[in-house]
Design a protein that fits this description.
By secondary structure, the chain is of the alpha/beta class. It has two domains: 11-215 and 328-414, Zn peptidases (Aminopeptidase), CATH 3.40.630; 217-326, 2-Layer Sandwich (Alpha-Beta Plaits). The protein is 32% helix and 24% strand. The protein contains eleven helices and 21 strands. The strands form six sheets. The protein has a six-stranded mixed beta sheet, sandwiched between helices. A hairpin with a 2-residue loop joins strand 4 (130-132) and strand 5 (135-137). Helix 2 (42-53) packs across helix 5 and helix 9 crosses helix 11. Residues 1-27 have low confidence and may be disordered.
């Protein structure tokens, strides 16, 4: 969902009419020993969260991402994993960390979470890790340091139980999900292709826990406007104001945003003018695009291109470029079966989860799904405040049930249940 995490949507979008509860066909009995072990693990998870939060890993923070990579590498090795480092591509910071644990079974399971956050360096000093009642706070604690912690401690629970009825468990901790994963998407697809199933650990929503059946694809619409500079006071009419042309372009394309089609088009970035007494000769604007159907995206691009050919101001030139950042994802039958199973498992230990048909955020689950393998998203801790100015937190009492959910999923999948 940054695109970025899957549940990076405001609470107002959780319309009651869109929430679909699942009557699962799965029939299971609670594993009391596993639940007791998961409950006993809660304090250790909190310590891990604190250590992860105390490493700042904002987008492009090379020092922090390398430090986080060293930390998770050590923790993976402590759980018996062999670890390899993969330098992020496309100029992204840090190393992607891959851990592998071999078992005695048949199923190959991939677990994914990301190390990067949206917070600039220095945020930690203003909002340090803290615990207040049932909430643990810190920059990135939900998105997605909670996913890392759940994976690490799930591996610990499985090791303590002696469970090895799987061919391999592969773990990927990547460095650039908040940047749409240009430096790790190839690695994600390769690991997904060699796996039988993919479990992704983005955070869940603290307001009401849910699973999703789809995520929008994302793109960047970048527009450059060329004009003619002139003295803003003495001779403005001899110039062509690129800022005015950009403003007109924005206003004339607002109708491209069509929520009823699950197509969102919103201008988010603009840059023009550097000197206050010169008519600006260049401007750039960028829109964030979210789509489900490729034909809707194609129609928007055609509309932008047509509009660019008809500038408002004589002499203005407009260039449009579209960059796809994430594919859309709609669950197939295999992925839907994973969702149903997760909902059934969760009923054993916690509140009933609901199903949200589509969210506007994106995640690496969509990239993994290109492999054609079953994928499930949203296995991190329930939290709130990520990608906002509000204090980000996770719910502490959800830790045992989330560890239980992840462990049961892996055990059942390993045993082909």
């Amino acid at each position: 969902m940054k695109t970025g995490s899957i549940f990076k949507i405001h609470a107002i979008t959780l319309m009651a009419s869109a929430l679909l509860t699942i009557s699962s066909a799965w029939s299971q009995t609670r594993d009391d020993a596993l639940l007791a072990a998961a409950t006993a693990e809660q304090a250790s998870v909190l310590k891990t969260l604190e250590q992860l939060v105390n490493i700042e890993t904002g987008i492009g923070n090379e020092e922090g991402l390398l430090a986080s990579g060293r930390y998770v590498e050590s923790e993976l090795k402590a759980q018996g994993a062999s670890v390899t480092r993969h330098k992020a591509l496309a100029g992204e910071a840090g190393d992607n960390i891959v851990g592998r644990i071999s078992g005695k079974g048949q199923r190959r399971i991939l677990l994914m979470a990301h190390m990067d956050t949206v917070y600039v360096k220095g945020t930690l000093a203003k909002a340090p890790f803290r615990v207040d009642g049932n909430r643990a706070f810190g920059p990135g604690i939900a998105d997605d340091k909670s996913g890392i912690a759940v994976i690490l401690h799930t591996l610990h629970l499985l090791k303590a139980r002696g469970f090895d009825n799987f061919a391999t468990i592969t773990v990927l901790f990547n460095t650039d999900e908040e940047h749409s994963s240009p430096g790790s998407s190839d690695l994600i697809q390769a690991l997904a292709k060699e796996s039988d199933v993919v479990l992704s650990f983005e955070p869940n929503r603290a307001i009401r826990e849910m699973m999703v059946l789809g995520m929008s694809g994302s793109a960047r619409a970048m527009v450059t406007i060329k004009g003619q500079a002139a003295h803003a006071g003495a001779d403005p009419d001899s110039g062509t104001n690129a800022m005015v042309e950009a403003a007109d372009f924005v206003l004339s394309t607002l109708d491209l945003d069509q929520p009823s089609k699950s197509f969102r088009f919103n201008w988010t970035i603009g840059s023009q003018g550097k000197v206050r007494n010169i008519i600006p000769d260049e401007a750039s604007i960028e829109a964030n695009v979210r789509y489900v159907r490729k034909e809707d995206l194609d129609a928007a691009v055609a509309a932008l291109t047509a509009r660019a050919k008809k500038p408002r101001l004589p002499g203005a030139q407009i260039e449009v470029q579209l960059v796809l950042t994430r594919p859309a994802w709609v669950v197939d039958a295999g992925s839907r079966a994973l969702v149903d199973k997760a909902v059934a498992i969760y009923k054993e230990v916690g509140p009933e989860m609901v199903i949200f048909p589509m969210v506007g955020g994106g995640s690496d689950a969509a990239t993994a799904a290109l492999s054609g393998k079953p994928v499930i998203e949203g296995l991190g801790l329930p939290g709130f405040g990520y990608h906002s100015t509000q204090a980000e937190y996770v719910l502490i009492d959800a830790i045992p049930r989330r560890l239980y959910l992840a462990s049961r999923l892996i055990m059942d999948l390993g045993e082909s249940k």
